[in-house]
Amino acid sequence: MSHPTSPATQTRLLCIGYAVIAAVALAATWSQNVAYFHSPTGLLTFWSDTKVNPASRSITVDIVLFFLAAAIFMVVEARKHAIPYVWAYLLGGALIAISVTFPLFLIARQLRVGPSETTRLGAVDATILAVLSVLTIAFVIWVDVA
Question: Which UniProt keywords apply (predicted)?
Answer without folding.
Answer: Membrane, Transmembrane, Transmembrane helix
